[in-house]
Amino acid sequence: MKHKKIISIVALLSGCAGYWYLLSEPAPTLAQAVVPNQDSQIATHQPSVVKPMKPKQVTVKETVPETVSERFSLLAKAYAQELSLPAYSVPLGIDDVHLLNPNRYVPQPVMLEGGASASIVMPKYRFSFPEPVTVTLEVNGLSISGVSASINSETDASAPVLTEDEMTGQNGLWTVQLDATEEWDGPMSVNVTFSAKGKKQTLTTGIEYSYPAATITGVGEVRAEGSDMLIPLKLTVEKAGYYRVRANLYTTNQQPVALLTASEKLSEGEVEMELKAYKGVLPKQDGEFTLGSFVLERRPAVPGELTRYGRSNESSYELGGFAVEQLSDEPWQPDEQEMQRLEFLQKMANE
């Protein structure tokens, strides 16, 4: 997976930077202080003449410390393991919670006076126009009143509040549904205000809201090509650009199989992108599969431009049956750049 490879390279660069820093840092020089000795006597003989010594030529051999070498060895082994499978088709397990639900909103409780706590709960983190946003406030150990929720832009602090409404509830649960307006676009700030013990308090969280740059409308006929299962993904593109799509492949009983990723420059209109599942991550036996948990992004074309997101008409699509045995057993071959990175790591590890 690409982000795993980036983490490995960042760790590598950090280790190299630290290594060269240690080697290039000059050794500290001790200051020499002249302290007069009150009990010393004046010398009566002439001091002897000491001939200056010729400077010796010192040869310094730079070596990688064993601990650094061991770290590079671990990086090399981890990176070699990653290269055993293609980055476009990564195994997925039930413990990969953040990948199984990439749009999950994680509540962050805030501690209040007297041991009370409050947290904002959202159904998800990323929304597409014209979806409403449901905001829930959970409060424990405190009686509150005058609860309201508002949304405003995070990119324009001077902009007025876009939407505000009162929240209703009881027994520590307060909720409201905020309907979208045309001004909702980009990173948004969700604010919940309430009164408790005569004081007004505000909790704030963030979400992403955008007009869909593209929409996934369906899937084509799945077919085999070499060692890959090819899945055509149908899209309607509203704004041309460089897109990346991520989707999870499941068996029909919703057992996770693999995270599939594809990137491509798309033009406006009806287009297709192909996702590929490598045989090495698929079950050994033939079966039926589904595709879901989509994340569709339009990447920034210039610095400062925001990432735009798309949506899918359906949360998942049935792919039907597929004969895994028809795929070839040819091993995955990393590209030249990936092999050069691995060779560099192995060299630094003295392997």
Topology diagram in text:
Blueprint: H1 2-24, H2 66-82, E1 89-91, H3 97-100, E2 110-111, E3 117-121, E4 126-128, E5 133-140, E6 145-153, E7 163-166, E8 168-170, E9 173-178, E10 186-196, E11 199-210, E12 214-219, E13 223-225, E14 228-237, E15 241-251, E16 256-266, E17 269-278, E18 287-298, E19 308-309, E20 311-312, E21 316-322, H4 336-348
Parallel strand pairs: 4-11, 12-20
Antiparallel strand pairs: 1-16, 2-3, 3-5, 5-9, 6-7, 6-10, 8-9, 10-11, 12-14, 13-14, 14-17, 15-16, 15-18, 18-19, 18-21
Between the first and last Cα atoms, what is the distance in angstroms? Answer: 25 Å
What's the number of helices?
4
Oligomerization state of this entry? single chain
Poorly predicted ranges: 1-56
Overall shape: globular
* Number of strand elements: 21
H/E element order: HHEHEEEEEEEEEEEEEEEEEEEEH
Cα-atom radius of gyration: 31 Å
Structural class: alpha+beta
**Biggest sheet layout:** 6 strands, antiparallel
Query: Proportion of β residues?
Result: 35-45%
Helix content: 10-25%
- Give the overall pLDDT as a whole number: 80
Overview of this protein structure:
It contains four helices and 21 strands. The protein is α+β, with helices and mostly antiparallel strands. Strands 1, 15, 16, 18, 19 and 21 form a six-stranded antiparallel sheet that branches. The N terminus is likely disordered.
